[in-house]
Amino acid sequence: MSERQKLSPSDWWATSIIEMKPGMIRYRGYAIEDLIGRVGFAEMVYLLTRGELPSKPAAKLLEAAMVAAVDHGPQAPSIAIARMAMTCGVGINNAMASATNVLGDVHGGAGEQCVELFNAVAARLPEGARDAATVDAEMITKAVTEEIEALAARGIKHVPGFGHRFHHLDPRAPRILALVDAAAAEGAVSGLFAAIGRTVEDVIAARRGGKRVPMNIDGATGVVFAELGFPPPLCRGLFVLSRSVGCLAHAWEESQSDYRNKGPIPRDQIWTYTGPGPRKVPE
Predict the structure, then answer these.
(1) According to the UniProt record, what class of enzyme is this (predicted)?
(2) CATH class belonging to 56-263
(3) 23-34: per-residue pLDDT in tens?
């Protein structure tokens, strides 16, 4: 019999996240009644995913990143799907689930990919160069250039976290970076990944003949997540948590309308047919 088969029922779902029995609930050792009213939602996210309560500056950065990505309008597939689902007669939880299920590599995954990029650049830096004060711009530029060339060698032309199809300058990114800079000045974060992110933008511009491709929301939140040390796969989950707020709001708003079976295009319009012309079924 394997060790897994020998597990007792109480060890089958062993977890370090929550301890619970009648009259008692503790998260990572903290009693829920002590947490309620004393910590915010972002702090609880950090506690449950990382095991410890964050510092106040770290909590502020995480909350800022999650606030920034809550919604981007019905043109975003996740939001559109939430609204369409509600007109099909499903519950609000079904609409939210349908919406978050499309947050994949293309729509919703760039933050995770961006943190992977930033971490890969940091790994190319000299040993011990792990904060903005111990690494110069030339080192970062060299590491960024090498990593972007490595991406290109793998056929990856679009650098995740940079450029936006709607915003020439994503209004969310400068504000987030300013908060990271303030936290770095206080010593709360290293500032290294903010420097890496800005250097990626510079290197892309140099490779495009001076045409800049500004950092977008995924790049800016990627800076925050990397500064806070979140593993890349968790970063997609953080984005899903954030975007769920927009999915909830849009699903609820759509539920107040009188539309039924609302599709992706208005009913007075029809899609473009690209198949064969009219033809007869063979005898």
Answers:
(1) transferase
(2) mainly alpha
(3) 999 999 999 999
